Amino acid sequence: MDRYLTFYIDGAWVDPATDARLAVVDPATERPFAEIAMGSAVDAERAIAAARRAFASFSLTSREERLALLERIVAVLKRRNDEIGDIISREMGAPRRMARDEQAGIGIVHFEETIRAMGAFAFEYAQGTTRIVHEPVGVVGMITPWNWPINQIACKVAPALATGCTMVLKPSEIAPLNAVLFAEVLHEAGVPAGVFNMVQGDGPGVGTVLASHPDIDMVSFTGSTRAGIAVAQAAAPTVKRVHQELGGKSPNIVLASADLAAAVRSGVSRCFANSGQSCNAPTRLLVPAGRMEEAVEIARQAAEAVRVGDPSDPATELGPVASRAQFDKIQGLILKGIEEGATLVAGGPGRPAHLEAGYYVRPTVFAGVTNDMTVAREEIFGPVLSILGYRSEDEAAAIANDTPYGLASYIQGAPDEARAFARRLRTGIVRLNEAPWDGAAPFGGYKQSGNGREYGTFGLNEFTEIKGIVGFGD
Q: Which of 219, 227, 344, 449 lies 20 to 30 Å from 455 when distance is taken between CA atoms?
């Protein structure tokens, strides 16, 4: 597709400034199947200039105009949902049904939730004689990851459009093709020229320009904590707003009052979903020490029942991880767990025996894990679960909070006990008893999991500046 070799700038598909290209690899086969152009500082600056010009007029559009725009985007996203899902499956390995229903489908949900939030959002209100005005923050640089690509694009672009911001998107070069389709959607829906711009590339070539450029008013980044630190450092000299959603090492606490079998099975399933490639995956399973043996056996059976295979096979539950680099990292950490003395309950190093190629990881469970082990502290970003025991709820809370991260946590148990325990956890999100996902709930973390919040009303707040007009009225 020719558009894979162009960028979307100022309402048109334009040629890049250089001839640099990158192969897009199918992680199920380890073979390239497409190429993208790789952007440079020249391309990024061209897109930033377009967004800056467009901001003058788009920032003054009415709530009604922006609502109508979001509704048109939803209509086009729905029509192209399966196409977007299929390309996500091909480029990052998610099972096709999951890629369509969840990976692509969540983009629609974010736009719909933004529409709902926007309807009730107080862009202006009186506080005595002062008028409080929420105005668009300005030109936003967006840097998004490969693991939930449309999710993270949509939950940034939707509130930015809703509040009157303009933007430049740099999607991940690991899974870049869905962003091309997304740009086509916005073009068809009638987003004004220059409001949304998209430049492919890597962090040094494009990401650093977005983070450091004086004409970018805010950078919204989702990715690893290591990369988030680099973004913040690049942004610091221009004192721009930096919004970060970073890594996690989320605990899943099974209280004594929980149905142990159901809680462990669901914990394994949640940890392995998306091949473990979710920043909020519950990768540390905390169970009462007296029931450890029982919990380990349930987890072993659940892990060994997971069907790993070709993303295009309807029976597949776990596809490959997204890249060779990710596969190698996971393999190294599995070996590190064994080396440090954790008990390998299921899985282990290497591919599943029935698969000869592809970045497939064996669903892996470790028991006998202590919270100082590497597998309990580092974000593995693969289908690897660590089971830890606790002797009291005080100890469970201490283990759960003993991490540099603070994105998410999960609790299983009697409702009143789970609600009380939730207040003890230092995470931005706590999910109780397999509660369904809530697109209006704030998403973001404490500590090294980032700052700021996404989704719904919270996303709208992040993309606005607050102005007080004193003496506006009696």
A: 227
